Amino acid sequence: TGMVTLDPGFGNTAACRSEITYIDGDAGILRYRGYPIEQLAEGATFAEVCHLLVHGELPTPEQLDELTARLRDNAAIPAGLRDLIAAFPVEAHPMASLSGAVNMLAAFHADACDPADPAQVDEATIRLLAQLPTVAAQIHRRATGQDVVEPDPSLGYVENFLNMTFGPTEGGVDPLLVRAMDLLFILHADHELNCSTATVRVVGSSQADLFASIAAGVNALSGPLHGGANQAVLEMLEGIQRVDGDVDSFIKKVKDRESKTRLMGFGHRVYKNFDPRSKQIKKLAQQILSRQEGEDRLFELALQLEEHALSDQYFVDRKLYPNVDFYTGLIYRAMGFPTNMFTVLFAIGRLPGWIAHWRELRNDPAARIARPRQLYVGPKERAYPGRS
Ligand code: CMC
């Protein structure tokens, strides 16, 4: 106990020591386990990054083979969960369906729920990584009224996910889309104590099981200030397009406090410089969108918004730069995902980070139950008036 410090939103409170991810927000640096994000984006696959985050080192070729095989062998979800997803309302938001389904994974994998048993934690880790894409794809099929496509053991992790989501196509899944999706998953894989990861740790600190903790992370991710921003950015761009692409008026509105409008996909608690992920993502957006016929009007609007904001004193003074969510939605849209699926894709990418943090917490001798303090500012003691 002792003196309690007020720190809303934990802007200045380190809740743990961590060996997973390093961020220098002023310099725009991001590293997973010491490896610069640019190098991982260039050379690694998502499966390698999963191993790196969860186990601390890049996999040896044998370890990678084993991980790949286990992910493949565990990709099918329990039949009961498949039936449950088929009964979800067609109009449900996919993030609501996702958190419900992840909660139910605990019920269907009761043999992997003991947080104190390392073998069960290992099983839970694999089943989550293997089955989240299957769950996500089946949620998409349900929401779009299409039949489920079962996992195909002949396909790689990301290829399989795209195949289950969009259905088999002649000639197989486009390799450029597979590479793009893999890269986006890598860029989302961890970001130290963001809102959802902090949530996973808070829930895990009560010794709740891994599935329960991850389901809580999914819910934290859904909000528009966090993972939900990728959906919000696209809706913002569409809104601007509806008023004839008037970027000037929109920026003016953002700067007017009364309007309570934010430039979605801009700003970050830690980065006060370019988010290194957003640089990679902008390049990827250019690459993917240049394959389409004609210009992409929403991409043009996004470029204009960025240019405007970066030269406007309001954004310069507050060090507001595009974040990871600014350009991702445009890529997902070009791939064929509906807007309300965007945050589900973020969740698939962030999953290894959530798991790595939960495991680090479980192995941290200094870890205690998360229990912040408060400063009470309510009424002083007063007497209940009683009944007359
Ligand atoms: N548009 C306009 N003004 C902004 C924005 C924005 N996007 N972001 C911050 N500001 C202003 C804010 O009004 C405040 O101004 P003032 O000092 O005059 O009151 C100042 O900048 C500091 O903002 P803050 O809200 O104290 O910053 P925070 O660290 O609490 O919030 C944030 C960080 C990411 C929630 C916020 O920047 C934001 O709401 N951005 C838009 C939503 C978004 O893109 N979220 C995705 C975050 S990145 C990855 C992820 O988690 O998904």
Automatic annotation (TrEMBL):
InterPro entries: Citrate_synth-like_lrg_a-sub, Citrate_synth-like_sm_a-sub, Citrate_synthase, Citrate_synthase_AS, Citrate_synthase_bac-typ, Citrate_synthase_sf, Citrate_synthase_typ-I. Keywords: Transferase, Tricarboxylic acid cycle. The active site is at H268, D325. Coiled coil: none annotated. PROSITE patterns: CITRATE_SYNTHASE. Signal peptide: none annotated. GO terms for cellular component: cytoplasm. One of its GO terms (biological process) is tricarboxylic acid cycle. The keyword Repeat does not apply. It catalyses: oxaloacetate + acetyl-CoA + H2O = citrate + CoA + H(+). It comes from the Bacteria. CDD domains: EcCS_like (cd06114). One of its GO terms (molecular function) is citrate synthase activity. Pathway: Carbohydrate metabolism; tricarboxylic acid cycle; isocitrate from oxaloacetate: step 1/2. Pfam families: Citrate_synt. Belongs to the citrate synthase family. This is Citrate synthase. It comes from Marinactinospora thermotolerans DSM 45154.
